[in-house]
Design goal:
Two copies of one chain form a homodimer. The first copy, chain A, is an alpha/beta fold. Helix content of chain A is 40%, strand content 23%. Bound molecules: 3-isopropylmalic acid (2 copies). One 3-isopropylmalic acid sits between chains A (89, 92-93, 247) and B (193-194, 223). Chains A, B: NAD(+) binds at residues 76-89, 280-292.
Chain lengths: 355, 355
């Protein structure tokens, strides 16, 4: 009942929203008799400014000695012109690889009180409750060879899309296990009509499915999935896909509900786990105390469920968030006429009151 | 004023919608005093059934002797279990490569009378008028090495994402030229924060931009683009991107308006041009005479503008289509209560009446 948490606030609004999540965890800790030991680490632009490295060895050490990492957000204009491998994003990619966080879980859920913020018509978005499961440590993100060179006098750039059998197997298993606790449907997304790497993906997913015949499996081409997500998002339950397709499809799925500030995520591996909001560091509103803390608070809820094995505590937080929305409290990003505008601290307080 | 057109109807509804487009071209031919010489060729499943090859040499020859190819659609369940390189899609990929059709142009436009068919709220979709320009002969579709093998006792599949400087240059030029005739804005979509191939893409697009400083250029990561297309589609004018990102992004853009049956496309190279509707072969309604011919008719309009250099004839067709919609004629796919349901032949007649 004791958990070591690495806390990496990062840049922009990162520190503010992490503070909110920690306040909520304090309350849960008392209610459920568990304890958290926090170690703070530098990451992203903040780490570049102090050490020149977006992921300093000390931060990696803290992560590797933890049961879970709670992450804010990284990046900002200040560091936009650095070369690719010195940028804040590189810190994030290195954490994923070093901690072998192969399964990125991104739920997208339409909250009834927020239907009006969606760009989709109410009848299309109402009731949407899907999860994108994105493979996070393989594919063209890490594939070799990669690089740039000159061939026959002209520049050429290349990367390698690659998947190994074991990488596909383990993410497929996570997908089917997840679907068992949900609506028992998995949509595997690939481009098997064109790519050999997708041909293998589809083959291995089919093989793993043999152990989960209680779950429905459908295969969908990534272009068609990009289309169907807009046309009939309700039909999806668990979407499983590779790293680059997952990057695109999960952001598209995130946009459907229209409330980016509400979307949590978890990235898990055999040994480590990592929790972060989907949204970025929002430098334009950083330091103003008006950011929406809900995505980070819901990420902490995912931590309680997955790392701390306290699904009940996760449900408590989710219900408190839903009640706050029903009671018409809104941060600026989700505010609409007729609702009550609150800042980060006030939103956090209202959630805590309902725990 | 004489044009050789290769006509490839393909599978499913292909023959029906191509017939409609040819009827419209007949009328235009008289009105503008131009002549068309049609040669029909087999492609896709229809070609597989007769010759075992989705793109028989005879068909390729017809295409190479033509000024333009008018294409219906390919594919169907019947051929779904063939190996990747024997499938109907392979015929399409080979045509693109053989004719060097490097620029795929896919307009997505919200027609006022059809706003109700969009999954997006009216205020989000109204006024959308964008073009996705997808590079079509490079990238992971054709990159080498590619394949499947066994390494250390496990299966592995891989493909190569690759772009050469000259491939990026020529598509970037098309993008800026197109934007000059439109709202003068280009959004170049890549994943330069992760991929070297995208790093080169961004660099070369910037270089080409130096010759088009009257056009605004913005760069956007593909995941963010997938999100912004839903949130604020009106902000896009010309989107230029690589083959695989373009496959996904153009289908997403196509879904925004909610009327797949309305979307035309053109694929052009230095020497050849190819026109096809975006939608597939729709085997479920094939032979019933109820398919929406508009996407194919608008593809023929793109042919008149690009290959025949008759922009006025293209505008005539576009206006006739708009009038038909204003007059409430609808095929089944876009029908809604209160409008008049017509079949393929009737829709074609109504368009011709308004030419
Ligand atoms: C910042 C970037 C490297 C990252 C990714 O592409 O994985 C981000 O888009 C994400 O989805 O977490
Ligand atoms: C059928 C398939 C090979 C093709 C592609 O991926 O290019 C299709 O999706 C398209 O967009 O024209």
């Amino acid at each position: 009942k004791h958990f070591k948490i690495a806390v990496l606030p990062g840049d922009g609004i990162g520190p503010e929203i992490i503070e909110s999540a920690l306040k909520v965890l304090d309350v849960i800790s008392k209610k459920y008799g568990i304890t958290f030991e926090y170690k703070h680490g530098l990451v992203g632009g903040a780490a570049i400014d102090e050490t020149g490295d977006p992921l300093p060895p000390e931060t990696l050490k803290i992560c590797k000695e933890s049961d879970a990492v709670l992450f804010g957000a990284v990046g900002g204009e200040k560091w936009d012109n650095l070369p690719t491998d010195k940028r804040p994003e590189k810190g994030l990619l290195r954490i994923r690889k070093e901690l072998e966080l192969f399964a990125n879980i991104r739920p997208a859920k339409a909250y009834a009180p927020l239907l009006s913020s969606s760009p989709l018509k109410e009848e299309v978005i109402k009731g949407v409750d899907l999860v994108v499961l994105r493979e996070l440590t393989g594919d063209v993100y890490f594939g070799e060879p990669r690089g740039r060179e000159v061939r026959n006098g002209e520049r050429v750039g290349y990367n390698t899309m690659i998947y190994y059998e074991h990488e596909i197997k383990r993410i497929a298993k996570v997908a089917f296990e997840m679907a068992r606790n949900r609506r028992k449907k998995v949509t595997s997304v690939d481009k098997a009509n064109v790519l050999e790497v997708s041909g293998l993906w589809r083959e291995v997913v089919n093989e793993v499915h043999a152990d989960y015949l209680d779950v429905d499996l459908e295969h969908m081409y990534v272009d068609n999935c990009a289309m169907q997500l807009i046309r009939r998002p309700k039909d999806f339950d668990v979407i499983v896909t590779g790293n680059i397709f997952g990057d695109i499809i999960s952001d598209e799925a995130g946009a459907l509900t229209g409330s980016l500030g509400m979307l949590p995520s978890a990235s898990i591996g055999e040994r480590y786990a990592f929790y972060e909001p989907i949204h970025g560091s929002a430098p334009d509103i950083a330091g103003k105390g008006i950011a929406n803390p809900i995505a980070t608070i819901l990420s902490a809820a995912m931590m309680l469920e997955i790392t701390c094995k306290l699904p009940q505590a996760a449900r408590d937080i989710e219900k408190a968030v839903e009640k706050v929305l029903e009671d018409d409290y809104r941060t600026a990003d989700i505010w609409s006429p007729g609702t009550k505008k609150v800042n980060t601290a006030e939103m956090t307080e209202e959630i805590i009151k309902r725990l």
